[in-house]
Amino acid sequence: MNDSLQTALTRLRLSGLAASLDVRLQEASGHHLSHREFLELVLQDELLIRRERQIDRRTKVAGFRELKMLDEFDFSFNSSIKRKQVFDLATGRFIREARDVLLIGPPGTGKSHIAQALGYQAIKNGSLVLYRSIFDVVRDFLHDEALNQQDKLLERYLKPDLLIIDDMGMKQLPKRSGEYLFEIIMRRYQVRSTIMTSNRPLEDWGKLIGDVPAATAILDRFLHNAEVIAITGKSYRLSRGGHGAGHMVPAAEEGQKKQTRGRRSTADGGIVSPPEDTEPVMALSSEVGVQAAET
Questions:
Q1: What is the pLDDT of residues 217-267, one digit of tens each?
Q2: Structural domains in the chain?
Q3: Percent of the chain beyond pLDDT 70?
Q4: pLDDT tens-digit map of 263-274
């Protein structure tokens, strides 16, 4: 490649084409490619490089805690997680339809892995993604509120095609957390998709947030058009960790029951559970429609 051609490709920002041009010229000569076939090849090279760079940029912007992929997930460990359901979500259809996803279950059962893997796949499918733990969300808003920059921050949470809020239920949140979370969920409702993970049952959210009416309003909107993956079983981390091979630490049985039973909102802003003979799945209520996961 001569200097003038290299300069022209650089000015046109065709670095992918420039990198493969010499190889493609030899290929065209050796295989007697037509001009059209040669042009198609070099343009495909450029598009491939641009796509890879876009994925890298968007992955950095997303801010994942760890880069996870679905093909790394051990579905055989926990039969309550349906492989087909997760891979259906990976197609990105729920994002195009502005639906939400809730992953709920005991610690260590793969919620964060699945959420981040779905986020990375969404980036590969062309979506903008933002990953934040619930603590990051609250910290962001407390900081920007002090600087009077809430509107700018809110735009950051509203712009992505997919927002992932992880770790709901790890510990009680500071005051006004419910206001911040409600604002995000309300503004994204039926406009953009959100994935949330929680290791605590939904009826505990009011206590965690410190605001039962806000928790009820959040769940009312978030669950209205959400797909719920209710996970039960043992911690994968503990079973593979420093407790010896095959040592399993079961999740609390009662916690599993609470996480998989249906809930409904009450008129006074509370969240109540159904009677004890309710089937152990996330049930549909008249106020909050949930597409329940198989357990």
A1: 999 999 999 999 999 877 877 766 644 333 333 443 344 444 444 444 443
A2: 3-59 (no CATH), 63-291 (3.40.50.300)
A3: 79
A4: 444 434 444 443
Contact between 48 and 113 (Cβ < 8 Å)? no
Phi, psi of 33 (to 5 degrees): -75, 145
Tell me the C-alpha distance between 130 and 159, whole Å.
9
Task: Compute CA 131 distance to the chain's CA centroid, rounded to the nearest angstrom.
Answer: 7
pTM of the predicted model as reported, rounded to 2 decimal places = 0.74
Query: What CA–CA distance (Å, rounded) separates 70 from 58?
Result: 18
